[in-house]
Write a structure and sequence with these properties.
Layout (H helix, E strand, L loop, with lengths): L3 H15 L5 H9 L7 H4 L10 H7 L3 H7 L5 H20 L2 H5 L3 H23 L11 H17 L13 H12 L6
Length: 187
């Protein structure tokens, strides 16, 4: 899934471009809340599939339209959650090469995602002016835990000289963020 900082960058750019947000804090919170759980299939309204095909599993794990069947976009938290799901859906269906997903296994793909995310983190923070503190104190505990995992947990399991494959360039990431920031959210 797109990383935390990418979701915040999309949310920030969405506000700058569209200006349709009443409560900026709620919108930022909603844009990251679906990932602050152990059961992401539930918060992303996806289908739990067997790990026989990484591509099939990735495509089916996010369903923005199912979210709309169960939720109204009558507040900025839900609008942020919906944008989050649209970003993740696009991430798996079009941004990360389906060919790459079809020919790799889950462990390698996850390693490549973590590697790419970590190499792009400082770039996203500087270019888009986003950081973990944009979210509210109400979700601070989850964010603190996420930062710990990101800094030590995920990478340390592969060792000090951890290297994966870059899944996209910074230029491609910028284009993705801009594309997703221009998505029209239903009112």
């Amino acid at each position: 899934m797109a990383n935390f900082l990418t979701h915040l960058a999309v949310a920030k750019r969405y506000i700058e471009i569209n200006g349709e947000v009443d409560n900026i804090q709620d919108f930022y919170d909603g844009s990251v809340l679906p990932d602050l759980t152990d059961d992401k299939e539930k918060t992303h309204y996806g289908t739990r599939t067997e790990m026989t095909s990484l591509l099939k599993r990735n495509i089916e794990k996010v369903n923005p339209e199912k979210f709309l069947q169960h939720n109204k976009l009558d507040n900025d938290i839900n609008r942020g959650k919906y944008l989050h799901m649209r970003v993740d859906w696009e991430y798996y269906n079009n941004f990360i090469s389906p060919d790459h997903q079809a020919k790799t296994n889950f462990e390698t793909f996850f390693k490549d995602v973590v590697y790419t995310d970590n190499l792009c983190a400082d770039y996203i923070m500087k270019k888009y002016g986003v950081y973990f503190g944009l979210t509210s104190a109400a979700i601070e505990k989850e964010i603190t835990e996420l930062k710990k995992q990101w800094k030590n947990g995920d990478i340390s399991r592969w060792g000090k000289n951890f290297v994966g494959e870059m899944l996209y360039s910074k230029k491609e990431l910028d284009a993705f963020i801009e594309k997703m920031a221009r998505v029209k959210l239903p009112r």
